[in-house]
């Protein structure tokens, strides 16, 4: 499809940008275009479109005509003088199957046409066997990203709330679960803060490959907790207190091990009680341990085990929606993330992707001592996970609050609608590949539209996320649906009671 003709302007055509006068009104900002040059086929991306008309250039004459009750358009052939200019950023020159940097501009007068979709597939770095996230904006081309490129160096989904982050995360999960063993299947673990992913269990396609772990039933086996980790669980302890508790823990472990028994927090507290520790350090220590006990999280054994959590081609949803206490959630995230990573290093579990909803709560940039617990693990996997096939997907509506270390290690950013200027600025600073124009577009994205930048794609791309196949969990339903359900249920209850009477 021919779109127009390259023009000569003050700035171009140059090797990096050019403009063309539009002859086809189907042209849109965001279209990929091509134009023949001496070097080969120049591929570009329309960054903006402007319309101009000399008749309407001078405000005073327009105003005068309109005042006179006449319209300029009626008195003059104004439409004949309208022209449209599209500005294009050159991505490179396509020759012999590869895209090279453009080193010679296209000539004014050259024809510009819509880029060939079959070429775009390779130019943008899509993979026919990759994860199908949606369609390239303005083109009928599936966006299929390569699994390794997306996961190996981690990714982050950033957007304001309601933009479609969780929906997109569900699409990624669907694609991962649909992979065949011969394609390589990773384990998918979702830290589901709002209970939005439990719908996978009742979806016909994915139910058999999904396990939901209810937050209230999750337990950390104290038996397996090293003194160092216990120390991290109790950041409020002084170093003297930490030494005391270490000694008790080590003694308890040795004794129980020799008897072939397990122990939990009760046993540890009893041991502290009986120990010959000084009374003035014993009492505060017991108080701290008792606050830990009140979380009802420690037991003799881990529940679930990392082996249950991480299985190839399976989804584990850790449903934290029933836990109100943020500290308890952080404990769970910190403990299980750490366990998963160390099991993966020893190759006891398959490569995995750990998806973290509300990740700013678990890897806070301005972390207090207590927040450090989960933050340090998330950052560690972000830094070192690549070598071991341990991947992290950060999902957040507060990119400003998210650990810059973790975010910088996420080499692919999937950005959806954001309107807050601070957030946009922050996203721009964390992402060199984004130019001013793209940053501006972020606030105009609609729900379900995303900008993908970084490792997973050769150039930043705009994507319309595809429709999901999995069921939405009732927790993610819209208010009107929830309200209808509530009324229907109340009505039914009333009818049942009446029938009974
Ligand atoms: N790609 C999409 N296609 C259709 N509907 C979508 C899409 N993305 C999001 N939505 C809808 O928009 C709403 C908000 O999406 P959600 O993923 O919960 O946003 P977030 O997690 O960013 O707060 C939901 O009702 C969801 O169904
Ligand atoms: Mg969400």
Write structural notes for this entry.
This protein has 501 residues and is an alpha/beta fold. It folds into 3 domains: 2-123, no CATH class; 142-217 and 303-470, P-loop containing nucleotide triphosphate hydrolases (Rossmann fold, 3-Layer(aba) Sandwich); 221-298, no CATH class. Helix content is 34%, strand content 23%. It has 16 helices and 20 strands. The chain has helices at residues 59-67, 72-75, 117-123, 147-151, 165-177, 227-233, 239-259, 265-274, 279-293, 306-309, 326-345, 372-384, 404-409, 421-429, 436-442, 479-500, and strands spanning 2-7, 17-22, 32-37, 40-53, 82-95, 98-100, 111-114, 131-136, 142-145, 155-158, 187-192, 210-214, 220-221, 298-299, 315-319, 352-356, 390-396, 412-415, 449-454, 461-465. It has an 11-stranded mixed sheet. Helix 6 crosses helix 7 (239-259), helix 7 (239-259) packs across helix 8 and helix 14 (421-429) packs across helix 15. The longest helix is centred in the C-terminal third of the chain and has 22 residues, at 479-500. It is elongated. It starts with a strand and ends with a helix. The model has no long low-confidence stretch (mean pLDDT 92). Bound molecules: adenosine-5'-diphosphate and magnesium ion.
